[in-house]
Amino acid sequence: MHPYRLTISCADRPGIIADVSGFITGHGGNIIESHQYSDDSSGMFHMRYVIDPANLRMNAEDFQVLFLPIIERYAMNFKLTDTQKKTKVLLMVSKIDHCLKDLLYRWKSGELDFDIPCVISNHPDLKEYVEWFGIPYFHIAVPKDEKGKETAFNATSDIIDKYQPDTVVLARYMQILPPWMCAKYQNQVINIHHSFLPSFMGAKPYHQALERGVKLIGATCHYVTENLDAGPIIDQDIARVHHYHQVDDLVRLGKDVEKSVLSRGLRNHLEERVLVHNNKTIVFG
Amino acid sequence: MHPYRLTISCADRPGIIADVSGFITGHGGNIIESHQYSDDSSGMFHMRYVIDPANLRMNAEDFQVLFLPIIERYAMNFKLTDTQKKTKVLLMVSKIDHCLKDLLYRWKSGELDFDIPCVISNHPDLKEYVEWFGIPYFHIAVPKDEKGKETAFNATSDIIDKYQPDTVVLARYMQILPPWMCAKYQNQVINIHHSFLPSFMGAKPYHQALERGVKLIGATCHYVTENLDAGPIIDQDIARVHHYHQVDDLVRLGKDVEKSVLSRGLRNHLEERVLVHNNKTIVFG
Amino acid sequence: MHPYRLTISCADRPGIIADVSGFITGHGGNIIESHQYSDDSSGMFHMRYVIDPANLRMNAEDFQVLFLPIIERYAMNFKLTDTQKKTKVLLMVSKIDHCLKDLLYRWKSGELDFDIPCVISNHPDLKEYVEWFGIPYFHIAVPKDEKGKETAFNATSDIIDKYQPDTVVLARYMQILPPWMCAKYQNQVINIHHSFLPSFMGAKPYHQALERGVKLIGATCHYVTENLDAGPIIDQDIARVHHYHQVDDLVRLGKDVEKSVLSRGLRNHLEERVLVHNNKTIVFG
Amino acid sequence: MHPYRLTISCADRPGIIADVSGFITGHGGNIIESHQYSDDSSGMFHMRYVIDPANLRMNAEDFQVLFLPIIERYAMNFKLTDTQKKTKVLLMVSKIDHCLKDLLYRWKSGELDFDIPCVISNHPDLKEYVEWFGIPYFHIAVPKDEKGKETAFNATSDIIDKYQPDTVVLARYMQILPPWMCAKYQNQVINIHHSFLPSFMGAKPYHQALERGVKLIGATCHYVTENLDAGPIIDQDIARVHHYHQVDDLVRLGKDVEKSVLSRGLRNHLEERVLVHNNKTIVFG
């Protein structure tokens, strides 16, 4: 079965669930999974339905048209996904390869179910590895000067626009995207940062962690926004470290946390379990 | 606000959500929290709604009557709780006091919201401590012979029946309840076992753990059934142990896990987040 | 058996272990536990020995005298503890009671083995509770003006000096100690901060955590220094939070982490497993 | 620097540390890391030293000869390793590839430092993948009949003997080694079992876990002994599961735990941090 997934965010008021579930049932659909969260502080209603369309008397396009009156009644932010169509995830990477290779393993083994239209990197190092899988690899060096950066990110954006991915994953891509790219692909670009944010933002978080003498290190999966390492957090996790661990050990222990947090966060994102409101995420787990 | 909580289990088929939410909305209620789980393997539908009754045009009794046609349509296992009425939790304990004292702290500080009609123990040790809180304490010794046991458990059951608790918690009560009591209070008696079940069932699990040389110990919160330590599991957790830990250390480390798992499991149970089907739990978290 | 504990820090060079262990064995002592850590980056050697003194042909005072040549040879920072003498831990608290009550439970039940000479608080709220255990309780209000603060902390310091504790625990004491107190009791004052530092330093960390939308909250046990929440970290831990958790939930979930981290850190400190160098701790676990 | 590693197990009595450290220092060695554990219940002394041999006035062979009197004095079980010589780890696998590929990644990236003389499998599936790394791959089918099994395991043992590995890792090798092989390579064969033992021994542990309705699943890294899944445990870890997880989910979540536990346990084993006594491990971490 390829179910439909429906996510809704709107100002909360009585009747939304009855109206939406009534609409679905009335057209022959069966709700097989549902999550709801009404946030008192923001007054917002968030919902995610998974629908068995076996007996649904309309296709996804018709659904959207027929559902319009309800959307308008509640001024809904709304998304309907027919899971028959595979999601496209574009990967970006620099030189450090553990997150990229981990995602490729999970993709190849079928654990994560999406298409990879291409990989973009500011280094040529992983070209051969990526192309071995039959995936196009674009090497776009990012110079240090402003002018060069602009050219590089224009080229990067052109490739993204050409392949039309649903999601871009920065799998340890060590460049800061320009604000206009963050705005253009809002809530579509996922980054893995190698600290438990907001601790140790910016560069070299493991060095910062060692310097501070923390007993935990971590990783954070978040949507990229204009403010560096300050976007909505999707998932975080930690590993315990000891006084005898040096930076190399932190990097090693951190790699496993990064892989785990990124793949888990991406999975939730792809299954449309993640809704964003006011720089925070609702994650229906 | 004192919301209503509605839990439903029944064979899955289309229309349940629409019918239930339509009923609630139609009578002026607002669904502020909802969880649903349709279990493919059993074909069962499980749901939990939290309802704001501010504008509900019926009280809890009327709700149950008016809702009857829907219950019958789907042959629902159904429970409606008006949270205005406080839950009654009866505690049972032997000599080891950390779980009891932890629950009393959480209760006294308002973290866990219920009434404690009384404490029953097979030992007198904690009498003074419990009565200091103004809670009646019944000491019912449990002899080793069958006849004596029967008398003791009849007396225990009489006290339970007199105080009519919603839930009984075995907070390290080191006696095995007779089958007839397990049957009588099905899914109402919660036990904390000091291992990650099914490892180390029965007596002295920490000694068993040390003997086996495990690197993790744990605790399990579960409903009591006739089969010792084999009832539906509500929650579990673990702590890491090392080769230099002796039984005393395992007991010490385990205490914190037991307190944490029992209070967390009890909290979910009291908020009616725990549904039971076929010796397994659905926990809407 | 009441073993001796010996901790040593000095610049690393060959022969320390042979000299120290030779000295102990030569005088009839048996080393039953040993930890060592040589830190490449600082060039420091750190060691902890537990010694069975049953056949030791000298008492603790003589040990110190006879050991002097070795201390001088290596310019050692050195501490010898005869565990026969109980450690004194002075507790300080404001109004929030979970850490204090948790420590009192662990102390009363014998899990943590020390004497509590007295409790100091800037509020009278916990007086009755503490005195019930036969522990003196000093209420010293801390005014907001500088002059009043100075008077209050002088009085506080006088009480500390009168009772001569080995360690002071700030069990959710919500005042900032003046720099001169931090200096006077260096590495003797342990604080529990309710975030995984360095995230959310200062006031209201749970509010900060909710605002940032983190998926983990935590607690940190550290030595108090002049720089607020920046002292050497002894232990940290975290709890997972979800989008539906409000500040109240974070406080509730955090309480358990705070209790756990503080009691664990204090235990390691009291067993002299924690050595400090350059604002970082070595924890021999 | 390529340090020496020295591990010792013997009956505990005073003087061991002084004698051993005196010997090392006397010959110009510097102890840069030391762990010791004296087990009261067994009366055994266990130790691990890391020695900087820069100024050592003897090589590893001479060390063993000159150290002989001390070995004999204490009837020591003793091992000296010159880390200049790379460890050889032979991998065995069936069809499920995540543990093998994870180890190959950690090996290739230099995170785990050993040589892989060959891979043995009872299936041909991973031949191409393994040979791509330049590693010989032996496919030895294991028939179901006793006679065929015997032939297969004789052939397997011949390959092991030919390549003389220090350690054999069963990276999800789904066959049970015959008792004579377990005896022959005692404490040299490491297995990863996909449950937190002793729960769910034998086949299909994830199915067993789902059936029992546990809230945690896990993995265990242990030395292989004649008793199936009952050998000395090196490491364990768990992942949290929920009611909506099916066997596929448990398998998916479990894979990450298996990889993590196996690589961590293997790392400790290779660094000679793991000593075995009476079916339990001492892990100097």
Q: Mean pLDDT of chain A, as a whole number?
A: 97
Ends apart, CA distance between termini of chain A = 21 Å
What is the fold named in CATH at topology level of the largest domain in chain A?
Rossmann fold
**Main interface: chain pair and counts:** A-C, 32 and 32 residues
Radius of gyration of chain A: 21 Å
Domain ACT (chains A, B, C, D): 5-92
Active site (chains A, B, C, D): 229
GO molecular function (chains A, B, C, D): formyltetrahydrofolate deformylase activity
Function (chains A, B, C, D): Catalyzes the hydrolysis of 10-formyltetrahydrofolate (formyl-FH4) to formate and tetrahydrofolate (FH4).
Any key phrases for this structure?
Rossmann fold; alpha/beta; 13 strands; 285 residues; 7-stranded mixed beta sheet; Alpha-Beta Plaits; homotetramer
Describe what you observe in this structure:
The structure is a homotetramer of 285-residue chains. Helices cover 34% and strands 27% of the residues of chain A. A seven-stranded mixed beta sheet of chain A has the order 7-6-5-8-9-10-11, with helices on both faces. The first copy, chain A, starts with a strand and ends with a strand. The radius of gyration of chain A is 21 Å and the shape is globular. Chain A has two domains: 4-82, ACT domain (Alpha-Beta Plaits, 2-Layer Sandwich); 89-283, Formyl transferase, N-terminal domain (Rossmann fold, 3-Layer(aba) Sandwich), CATH 3.40.50. In chain A, helix 4 runs parallel beside helix 9. With 285 residues, chain A is an alpha/beta fold. Chain A is built from nine helices and 13 strands. Chain A has helices spanning 16-26, 60-66, 68-74, 98-108, 127-132, 146-163, 179-184, 205-212, 247-270, and strands spanning 4-11, 30-39, 44-52, 77-82, 89-93, 119-121, 137-139, 167-170, 189-193, 216-223, 233-240, 274-277, 280-283. The longest helix of chain A is centred in the last third of the chain and has 24 residues, at 247-270. The interface between A and C is medium-sized, with 32 and 32 residues.
